[in-house]
Amino acid sequence: QLSVRGLTPNAIQGAVLASGFWLEALLGRGQAPPAPDTKSLLRKLIRSIAEKEPAKAEHLKRAVDDIESAQVDSLAAQARGELAFSMVLPFVDANPVEIKFFRPPRRPGQSKTPFSVDIHTDNEELGEIWLKTSITEAAHVDLMMWAVKASVVRLAQRHSGALAERLAFAGLTMDSFRVFHSARPSLPDSWAPPGAMLDVVA
Questions:
Q1: How far apart are CA 175 and CA 191, in angstroms?
Q2: Which residue among 88, 96, 168, 175 is least enclosed by CB atoms within 10 Å?
Q3: pLDDT at residue 187 above 60?
Q4: pLDDT at 181 over 90
Q5: How far apart are CA 90 and CA 87, in angstroms?
């Protein structure tokens, strides 16, 4: 499992690849899945405890069903010309994080479509947080954040400059960063914030 204290881009990439979401695709290409692959691990656990602890085995079966349901939803989105998949990343030292990746279908005459990443967690110290990252033209980033704790809103505002510098170091330009002191409302995936820096405290 991932650790918040030792979090790196490579660790996140490895966790996404090992989530079980890509198992069939990798096998179909003749590639070995990362070890341990979550989906394969769950199936092994189910086989090992099915007779002795059937109730726990049922919980694990539902976890496998969740992964496979997400895979089916992703294939349906692909048929519509979209890229859409979601998963949950577990952490040993923090609550799990839900992540959703989305890119709408390309319109006629449109070279590239915006790519978005939605993140949600309910942290014991920071409270409930939502983050929406929209990437356009491969390198321009718009960020929106919702937090239920006022202290977290102030913390995000205070470090917005440092975040812009880190993104610039990675070759990305932060066009906007908006922070809301509230729970996230229901928004369509295609909605994008205007290209202006604005901090808002409700």
A1: 16
A2: 168
A3: no
A4: yes
A5: 10
What is the pLDDT at residue 198?
34
- CB distance 40 to 18 below 8 Å: no
d(CA 88, CA 133) in angstroms, rounded, equals 17
Q: Assign 102 a pLDDT band (cuts: 50, 70, 90).
A: very high
Cis preceding-peptide flag for 54 (omega within 30 of 0): no
Locate the DSSP E strands across 92-149: 97-103, 115-123, 127-136, 140-147
pTM: predicted TM-score of the whole model, two decimal places: 0.77
Closest CA to 189 of 65, 105, 122: 105
pLDDT reading at 113 higher than 80? yes
Please provide residue 92's backbone torsions phi and psi, each rounded to the nearest 5 degrees.
-80, -25
d(CA 103, CA 35): 28
